[in-house]
């Protein structure tokens, strides 16, 4: 039975939300926990890099399939039943991974994990939107950002330390008891607060969505490894794009769509989506290019590379609730513009790296960059969601989470390609200069040393150039942020007044 909205807004169910937060944190931490352990898994199961990559690719693909469908599941099933089902699937996958006897079983366990974790963020975001009144949503979504940004960023540092001292299976052994504990608490404390309605799943929409988003994610994520000229890469991208176009057309024509694209008629939600996509591209680029510089150019260990990025994750986590409170007071425009100015400046400084750039200087710039981004993502997203009607919240949250996944994959692939092409051009130019000056030995240790120096300099040029492009991308987001306006939907009392005048109006259908 649904709680009374007004009573809930006066006294939000903090205990219940804490359980959802903990479950989402555990699931999101698991997203990036395995990345550093891949070499150890390759050795144990004797698999190639292209095969071991399926541990992350398979996880990502299931997310790409499940997140767009989350709008249907959130409306169809109660939040209690959905959370318990998602957490149970995640726990089964985790337990299976601990004892996985073969690589195939390990891949299957990761995909089972993903089928559960994919529901967590849209469900949690939707519960937050229902549980808190509009004037407190900023603070609430700020706490949500604490989970969203901190957990994935802590993963590489934590796993780097664990893999250095223990087996990769320990990564799953640590997560398993927390997952079980979350289920136990949820059984006793979780209540139903989200509105539900009887609806049926359109199978064709699910198929088109899975092929569309899954194809794009796989194609763009594989481009860095296989190359853009690979039939698998451009084939899956083309099939994904066609399927996605068919999916969008079908949703626009349906009376009861699986994912409602009509919410883009709300200008601030549409603008928020565009800014989030552009910012996600810039953010993911930093998370990929920085470790490449630290490990490949500077030769710093993976664990120290993770430590370098940890302060940025902590700052982003700490700032998220603070930014939420500032959003409630000042709105999104001032925050997003300030944050993007900082992001543009820090990204530009990252495009000026040298072979001898200091470790702590790099840590400082990266942390400042994450500080800037902490002021952008959640305020912009919350402002956009504030404009859509309550009944469309599941569609808005599903859309935001899906677009972040897809834009992150696409942006990372494009920026890695830009880096590779620049690296090839720079390497050829440096080799020509060395040959013209007569400083290019043909054999021996001297030749190997010169070639290694050319490789490092060309990679540095590629990384710097990609960061410069990321800075320009951030400028685009900054320009768009100038057009953001604070959304002020009617308060609960205004809705009740409208209801008294017209009984047909509900809190879901009240005009914006």
Automatic annotation (TrEMBL):
The segment annotated Disordered runs over 492-512
Q: List residues of the Major facilitator superfamily (MFS) profile domain.
A: 16-489
Asked if the keyword Nucleus belongs to this entry, the reply reads no
Which Pfam families does the entry link to? Answer: MFS_1 (PF07690)
What keywords appear on the UniProt entry? Cell membrane, Membrane, Transmembrane, Transmembrane helix, Transport
PROSITE patterns named in the record: MFS (PS50850)
One cellular component GO annotation, for this chain's record? plasma membrane
Matching entries from SUPFAM superfamilies are given as: MFS general substrate transporter (SSF103473)
Q: Transmembrane residues, as ranges?
A: 12-34, 54-74, 86-108, 114-134, 141-162, 168-188, 200-220, 232-249, 269-294, 306-327, 334-353, 359-381, 465-484
Point to the regions of Polar residues compositional bias: 500-512
Give the domain of life: Bacteria
In the bilayer, the protein is annotated as: Multi-pass membrane protein
In terms of InterPro entries, this protein maps to: EmrB-like, MFS, MFS_dom, MFS_trans_sf
| Gene Ontology molecular functions | transmembrane transporter activity
Q: Could you tell me where this protein is found in the cell?
A: Cell membrane
* Family the UniProt entry places it in: Belongs to the major facilitator superfamily. EmrB family.
The entry's protein name is: MFS transporter
Its ancestry begins with: Bacteria, Bacillati, Bacillota, Bacilli, Bacillales
């Amino acid at each position: 039975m649904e709680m009374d909205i007004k009573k809930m807004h006066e006294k939000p169910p903090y205990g219940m939300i804490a359980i959802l937060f903990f479950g989402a944190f555990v699931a999101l931490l698991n997203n990036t926990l395995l990345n550093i352990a891949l070499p150890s898994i390759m050795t144990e199961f004797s698999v190639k890099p292209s095969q071991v990559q399926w541990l992350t690719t398979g996880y990502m693909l299931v997310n790409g399939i499940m997140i767009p469908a989350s709008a249907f599941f959130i409306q169809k099933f109660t939040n209690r039943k959905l959370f318990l089902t998602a957490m149970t699937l995640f726990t089964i996958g985790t337990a299976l991974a601990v004892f996985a006897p073969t690589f195939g079983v390990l891949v299957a366990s990761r995909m089972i994990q993903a089928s559960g974790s994919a529901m967590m963020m849209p469900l949690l975001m939707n519960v937050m939107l229902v549980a808190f009144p509009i004037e407190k949503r900023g603070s609430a979504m700020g706490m949500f950002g604490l989970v969203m940004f901190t957990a994935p960023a802590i993963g590489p540092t934590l796993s780097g330390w664990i893999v250095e001292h223990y087996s990769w299976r320990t990564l799953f052994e640590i997560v398993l008891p927390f997952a079980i504990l979350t289920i136990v608490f949820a059984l006793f404390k979780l209540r139903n607060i989200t509105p539900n309605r009887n609806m049926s799943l359109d199978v064709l929409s699910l198929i088109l969505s899975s092929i569309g988003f899954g194809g794009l994610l796989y194609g763009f994520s594989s481009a860095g490894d296989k190359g853009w000229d690979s039939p698998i890469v451009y084939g899956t991208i083309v099939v994904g794009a066609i399927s996605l176009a068919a999916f969008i057309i079908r949703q626009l024509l349906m009376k009861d769509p699986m994912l409602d694209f009509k919410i883009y008629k709300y200008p601030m939600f549409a603008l928020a989506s565009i800014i989030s996509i552009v910012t996600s591209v810039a953010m993911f680029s930093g998370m990929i290019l920085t470790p490449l510089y630290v490990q490949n150019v500077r030769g710093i260990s993976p664990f120290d590379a993770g430590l370098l990025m940890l302060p940025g994750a902590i700052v982003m986590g700490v700032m998220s609730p603070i930014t939420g409170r500032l959003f409630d007071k000042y709105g999104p425009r001032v925050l997003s513009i300030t944050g993007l100015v900082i992001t543009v400046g820090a990204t530009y400084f990252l495009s000026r790296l040298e072979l001898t750039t200091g470790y702590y200087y790099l840590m400082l710039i990266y942390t400042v960059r994450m500080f800037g981004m902490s002021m952008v993502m959640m305020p912009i997203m919350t402002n956009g969601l504030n404009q859509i009607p309550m009944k469309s919240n599941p569609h808005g949250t599903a859309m935001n989470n899906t677009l972040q996944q897809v834009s992150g994959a696409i942006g990372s692939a494009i920026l890695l390609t830009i880096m590779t092409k620049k690296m090839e051009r720079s390497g050829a130019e440096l080799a020509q200069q060395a040959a013209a000056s007569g400083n290019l030995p043909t054999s021996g240790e001297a030749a190997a040393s010169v070639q290694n120096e050319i490789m490092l300099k060309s990679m540095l040029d590629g990384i710097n150039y990609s960061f410069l492009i990321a800075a320009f991308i951030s400028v685009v987001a900054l320009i768009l942020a100038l057009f953001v306006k604070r959304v002020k939907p009617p308060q609960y009392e205004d809705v009740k007044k409208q209801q008294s005048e017209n009984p047909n109006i509900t809190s879901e259908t009240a005009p914006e």
